[in-house]
Amino acid sequence: MTAQAMASLSREVLEDAVVDRAPIGLAEVISEAALQTRVDRKFLLTPEEFTALSERLGDQFKIMEIDGLRTFRYESVYFDTEDFEQYRAHRQGRRRRYKVRSRTYADTGLSMFEIKTKGLRGATVKHRVEQAPEQAGELSEENREFLDQVLASEYGEEAPPLSAVLDSTYTRATFVNPIDGERVTCDVELNYANDEKQIAGPDLIVVETKSADGRGVSDRALAELGIREVSMSKYCIGIALLHPQLPANRWSRLLAQRFGTRHDPVSHPTRPWSMVRS
Fold first, then answer.
1. Is the pLDDT of residue 190 over 50?
2. pLDDT tens, 243-269?
3. Fewest CB within 10 angstroms: 11, 58, 155, 258, which?
4. By C-alpha distance, which of 171, 172, 173, 178 is closest to 216?
5. Which top-rank group of organisms is this from (predicted)?
């Protein structure tokens, strides 16, 4: 079976899982389940495991629907320094770390500039502002000012020089529990690219639970199925895949077992590069 055919199996089970659920609109998600400060937990599921999870979530979870669509194409551009300072901060588990990205919702045209920081007890805090879609591939002056404000407020730091270092695309569906604000995002067809190459992800579903304390209904369902949390950042995995010369010991086993790649970093320095977009 080809990689493309395998990937379509993940998309198929995702579509099957969302088709009959009650819908929830974006406005209701924002008002009742925004969870800008939350505990995020990531899991990698096979199509069979994902189907079992969907069945366990029950009727209390609805599916986010916008203009009749229940799965959406996401396009993300990540920013970092020339020597991948934030990638290294995540690899080393530094407390003061952050991610900077532009995220465009391809099906609706909405584009956001986002900074994700770590708050108290490891909770993720998302700061974001809307931007014009054509700004997604660059760090505009307005977004740079917003970034400076966030880092000064959160960490008392100034932002270093940043440029676009990674493009990422995937298809997502979002399960929402409006009772307690819990969300479960489910990503398939993950692809990474830079100006030199493009890499497709495996036939797996990236499931991320987002709850107030990390012990939501979905977390309990995953535990009952015997599915363990993984230490994974889509950004860091993408950088490690595209730049095998960089140290990636924190994700080496995951890369080998689930992404089918051996990671043998070498000692030569990283060559700076820039993203190419149409």
1. yes
2. 999 999 889 889 888 887 654 544 333
3. 58
4. 178
5. Bacteria
Query: 240: closest CA among 132, 177, 165, 137?
Result: 165
Quote helix, strand, coil % in the chain, to nearest 5: 30, 30, 35
Q: Which two tokens stand for residue 20?
A: 């009959």
Q: Answer whether 210's CB lies under 8 Å from 182's CB.
A: yes
Over residues 212-241, the mean pLDDT reads 92
- What is the three-class DSSP state of 170? strand
pLDDT tens digits along 23-66: 999 888 876 655 555 788 999 999 999 999 999 998 889 999 99
Given CA atoms 235, 236, 239, 240 in this order, what sign does their dihedral have?
A: negative
Tokens of 61: 């979870």
Query: 128: left (phi > 0), else alpha (psi -120 to 50), else beta?
Result: beta
- Average pLDDT of span 171-193: 93
The CA-based dihedral angle spanning residues 236, 240, 245, 248, taken in that order and rounded to the nearest 10 degrees: 70
Give the number of other Cβ atoms within 10 Å of residue 41's Cβ.
18
Of 119, 80, 241, which Cα lies nearest the Cα of 251? 241
Among the listed residues 235, 206, 201, 234, the one whose alpha carbon sits nearest the alpha carbon of residue 222: 206
pTM of the model: 0.83
Tell me which residue of 57, 2, 15, 59 sits closest to 188, measured CA to CA. 15
